[in-house]
Structure formats: structure tokens, C-alpha cells
Amino acid sequence: MTQTADNAAILQQGTGDTDSAQEPRRNRFKYGSILLSFLLLSLVLTYTLPPLLPPLIHHAPPPWYEEASDIDRTDSYYSQPESTYRSELSDTAAIVRFWPSTGGLLLREHATGIEVDFLGLDRFDNVPRPSPYNATLEDDFCERLERLGATHCEDESDYFGSMMHRTRRYRALLAWPENDTGGTWALVLSAKEWRRTACVHNARTMEERGEMIRRLGGRYFGDWTELRPKLRKALKADRSPGLGPVEGFEDILAEPVPLDTEPS
């Protein structure tokens, strides 16, 4: 009888020891189940809750918010109707447009005060597109805008779309220290290098502008009639970045020179 009681006590003690050994495992399983349930709940809320929030939460729009009826949300900035201004002031500079008789648009974005003066336009007010259209006069203006490195494009949507999608790799800077009677300093830079041109835009005169272009690695060309077709061909070919090097830039694409380099 006593031996049977002892065996029962030993068996009960062994069962208790087994339960104690399995307790951590049961706790890990419990906590793991809770964590898994939490993750599943998070996923469910992530995909189901956001669509339900707008009808439930309403905030009054701030005073500066435009009414939805005043905004054309079916279109983008890059495909808005063409401007009726020849020169239009933006936040920091001007956008200049000319319409050649051969078709398309000649555009210079971020035109500085020096460039606007060079074109003979008003630096302080918008200049409307001339009407009626005079092809001879317009082509003369286009030739002058090309002297500043303007870009040929089909229309404004084409130009700004190419800038947004980075299908233009190069931009040109030109300076005319002696106005139209002498040569020009020219520099063509990639979009990555364009950030270094603030010194050119800060120039107060064409002489300073030419000096800054020279310091950045620009070259001097004495004959505009020789440079013009090369520059036009190169800027036009720049619209096809997948075709490798742009032909025509070999003679005008200069290696940028650091601004701290001693003048030669």
C-alpha cells in the first residue's frame, strides 16, 4: 500500500516536471499566435481602411485651396495651350518664344536680363505675341534668339515634355562681348553640369558673361555663320538620347573647367 502511494507520488512529480518543461514552449506558441494575428490584422486594415476614411473624415479646405471646378485635372502643365506671349516673366527669369516661318517654335527658358536686353525686349513686363504675323521680322528675331542657344521644338508641350522626361541632354550658353560685330563665346553642358552655370547667369554685362563662359571651359568662335548650323544640328539631334553620342557637338562641347582654375 505504501509502495503504491510512493509510486503515485513519483508519477505525479514526473508529470509536473514535464508540464514545467513544456510551459515555455506553450508560451512561445501563444505569443507567436498573437503576433501573427496582429500582422494579419494590420494587412487587412491597410487594404480596407483607407477607402472608408474619406466619407467618414471631412476637413474644410484651407482658404488658398482652389475649387475643384477651377482646375483642369484631366491635363498636365506640359500640355496646356500655347502661350500668347513672346516674352513672359516667370518666378526667377523670363521665357522667350519666337515662331519661325518654317514652323515649330524657338524657345529660351530662364532667359536672364542680359539675354532679354540682347533681344531688345522689355525686362519688366510681358510682351505679347505680335499680330499680324510678319514672317521676315519673325525670322530675324529667331536668328537673334539662336545666338543665345535657344532650342527648336514643335511646340511648348514638346519642349517641356522633353525636359520632364529628360530626353534633352545638353544646353547651350553663348555670349557676345562685342555685340553682333565680333565673335561669340560658346559652351555646351550636359544637364548634370548645368548646375555650375550660376556664375554665368549672375553676370551683369555681356563682357562678364563671356568671361564666365570662358572660365567654365567655353570656346571662342569668330564666325557665327559657321557655328550656327553646327549648334542647330546638335541641339536637334539631342532629342534622341538612345542613339549614342550626339553628332555635331564634337567642336563645341567643351570639358568643364573648375571655377578655381587660374585663367589662361
Quick one: biggest sheet?
A: 5 strands, antiparallel
Total count of strands: 8
Unreliable stretches (pLDDT < 50, length at least 5) are 62-75, 241-245, 256-264
- Rg, please? 35 Å
First-to-last CA distance: 116 Å
Strand content: 5-15%
**Backbone shape:** elongated
> Kindly state the mean pLDDT as a whole number?
73
Structural class: alpha+beta
Description of the structure:
The protein has 264 residues and is an alpha+beta fold. It has a domain at 93-243. The protein is 40% helix and 14% strand. It contains 8 helices and 8 strands; from the N terminus they run H-H-E-E-E-H-E-H-E-H-E-E-H-H-E-H. It has helices at residues 2-48, 53-56, 113-118, 135-146, 156-164, 198-201, 206-215, 224-237; strands spanning 85-89, 94-98, 105-111, 127-128, 151-153, 170-175, 184-190, 219-221. The strands form 2 sheets. Strands 4-1-2-3-5 form a 5-stranded antiparallel β-sheet. Strands 6-7-8 form a 3-stranded antiparallel β-sheet. Strand 1 and strand 2 (94-98) form a beta hairpin. The N and C termini lie far apart (116 Å). The relative contact order is 0.08. Mean pLDDT is 73; it is low at 62-75, 241-245 and 256-264.
